[in-house]
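Structure (tokenized):
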């Protein structure tokens, strides 16, 4: 995600966490751990990441899950 939607953070309860890749201005991604602490959010950078498309059986399972979600 290039930016973290505020609506996503609004869903996190106090003490809750989100691990999410956030796109940088050079096209790369950095993984962040975001933790809700009352009305604020603490952000910890976990490091650069690169996600690749699923292939083989994993891709088939993901596609089946996507189709069942659309029903």
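Design, position by position:
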């Amino acid at each position: 995600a290039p930016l973290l939607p505020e609506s996503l953070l609004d869903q996190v309860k106090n003490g809750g966490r989100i691990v999410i890749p956030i796109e940088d201005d050079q096209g790369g991604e950095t993984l962040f751990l975001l933790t809700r602490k009352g009305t604020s959010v603490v952000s910890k950078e976990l490091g650069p990441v690169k996600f690749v498309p699923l292939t083989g059986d994993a891709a088939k399972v993901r596609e089946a899950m996507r189709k069942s979600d659309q029903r």
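Reviewer-requested clarification: The chain has two helices and three strands. The mean pLDDT is 87.
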